[in-house]
Amino acid sequence: MKSRVILGLAAVLLASCSNSSTPANAQVQDQPAGGLVPPTTASDFTATKLDQVLAGDWRSPEHKARDVYRHPKATLQFFGVRPDQTVIEITPGGGWYSEVLAPLLHDNGHYIAAIAKPSGDGEASRDKTGLKAKFAADAAHYGKAQILEFDPKAPVLGAPGSADVVLTFRNVHNWVEADTAPLMFKAFFAALRPGGVLGVVDHRAADNASIDAVKDSGYLPTDYVVKFATDAGFTLEEKSEINANPKDTKDYPKGVWTLPPTLTLGEQDKAKYQAIGESDRMTLRFVKPAAASSP
Asked: Does 171 score more than 50 pLDDT?
């Protein structure tokens, strides 16, 4: 699989760098004078594409300002995301990562924004409306993006084994509150091909915290989240400190929403919370065993 991906990406590079008007008898240079040497590996190609996407003028200034806290390039590289994959992002909310993933996957991959079917005029409905408007307004970057609606009480995220990567950012705590987390992780497992990756980022509670003590705060113990995934059949491949924040004391009046970007307390101690920054976060990479099959 890896060799196929590298060959495929190499073909894209060669096609983009070739010049059909070059005479047949022209002398071939090892490195054109003043030219750039194209990337030679899938990881180099992905890094270059990520840099281009993250600098894109379609990303709002407010969203770009969050890069320093969310580390999108390092996070997506840790999860092994490549431009030729099928990637499902679960409940992307206002589309912060959609602005990165949809353009990244536009030419050679497939981006799917999976959202819970709205039951009224609440947040889910607003998110759906906002994403549809975002995608429709910029076909050059979102024209191939797909919105998939799922029932949170019986989630199905497309055909079994159809995705290379499933990603979810700061959502598990919501499923814990709604008591749907086990169902969601089973749906991730079903949607992924054998060997596929599940990437999870969420607000991290102290290691010794009990779930009963913190579940209303937005923070979750890492082991608690890992168990959802392993119970569904995944193997924990690696943890990362990419999104760690040692300034986060995790003891705020309104839980994690006290911190940016929500700042639930408004002007009260605003400078203090801005100095802390966004929450301390776990970053977990799981894999669906290569021998596994979707239920």
From this structure: yes
Phi then psi for 112, rounded to 5 degrees?
A: -120, 120
Alpha-carbon gap, residue 167 to 153, rounded angstroms = 19
| Residue 117 token pair | 């079917």
In Å, what is the CA distance from 148 to each residue of 88, 91, 151, 156? Answer: 9, 10, 10, 9
Cα–Cα distance for residue pair 5/85, rounded to 1 Å: 9
Give the number of other CB atoms < 10 A from CB of residue 192.
28
Rounded Cα–Cα distance for residues 131 and 115 (Å): 10
- 64-94 confidence digits (pLDDT tens): 999 999 999 999 999 999 999 999 999 999 9
- What's 161-224 look like in SS3? CCEEEEEEECCHHHHHHHCCHHHHHHHHHHHEEEEEEEEEEEEECCCCCCHHHHCCCCCECHHH
Average pLDDT over residues 208-214: 91
63 three-class SS:
helix
The overall average pLDDT reported for the chain is 88
Please count the residues of the chain.
295
pLDDT above 70 covers a percentage of the chain that reads 85
Measured distance CA(237)–CA(16) in Å, rounded: 35
